[in-house]
Every structure is written in structure tokens, then in C-alpha cells.
UniProtKB/TrEMBL annotation:
Predominant cellular place of this UniProt entry's protein: cytoplasm
Designated name of the protein: Flagellar assembly factor FliW
Family of the protein in this entry: Belongs to the FliW family.
Subcellular location: Cytoplasm
Native species: Paenibacillus silagei
Quaternary structure, from the entry: Interacts with translational regulator CsrA and flagellin(s).
Task of the protein: Acts as an anti-CsrA protein, binds CsrA and prevents it from repressing translation of its target genes, one of which is flagellin. Binds to flagellin and participates in the assembly of the flagellum.
InterPro entries reported in the protein's UniProt record: Flagellar_assembly_factor_FliW, Flagellar_assmbl_FliW_dom_sf
Keywords: Bacterial flagellum biogenesis, Cell projection, Chaperone, Cilium, Cytoplasm, Flagellum, Translation regulation
Amino acid sequence: MIIETLSMGTLEVREDQVFHFAKGIPGFDEEADFALVALEESPFWVLQSVKERGHSFLLADPFTFYPSYEFELPDDEAEELGIESDVLVRCIVTLKEQVEASTINLLAPIIFNPSGLTGKQIVIHRTSYHTKHSLLQEQLVADGKDGG
């Protein structure tokens, strides 16, 4: 399938890269189908609408930046997505002009069912996670720098 993007031009994506979001993504409810495109040699992906070239999100593997990140996927969410075993978790990244100021949304991860090609952004309840964790903070602490 050929899709048009603003940031990467024309892309050819495989069927197994296109995920269906039954209720869209909050704020983009009209968009139901998105291609998940890996950015080579990086911990980032682009979630690109297959219909609207201007609708895309930068995603990251949260475990790369926050190895201690964890949450329990509610049974009803797993059932809605048809998840039986494989699950893929990605979080939306907000890039800032100064990369040190970039953030990752750990409160509302996007859950993918790679075998059923379904996806959904969920909100984790009863947690200390929020929408704007520093993309580099845990790595700076691990390296012995406090970032301040």
C-alpha cells in the first residue's frame, strides 16, 4: 500500500504495518487506520494515518527510556483489542527544539495487537505516570547526571 506523509514523503507500507483503531486516537476520532513505521537504527516509530498525510505521531518504546515502566493492561482493553499473547507498547513523544526538553507520554500508552492488527490508546488509572515525562531524565539519572 502506498501512503502519503508530510515528513517522509511517499511511503510503501506492508499490510502487517497497518493497524485499525476502532475508536480512532483521542483528538483524531475520524482516523481509524494507521501505519506503524520504524525509523531505522533508532528507538522511534512514526504512526501515520493512511488517509490524512498530515496526521502522524512520533512514538517511542517506553522501556528504552524508562526500563522500570510498568502497568497492568485491563482485561476489558485486552479483550477489545483481541490480545491473546503478543502485545506491543509505544508512547507518544513530543519533540522540542532543544532535545533535552522533549517529553514522552507514559500516562496514555498506545497498545498494539500485532497479530490482530488492532490498536488503541489507553489511559492508565491510579498511577504516578503523567503525560510529560522527560525523554532523557531516567537516562541522565542512570548516568549520574541530574539534568538540572
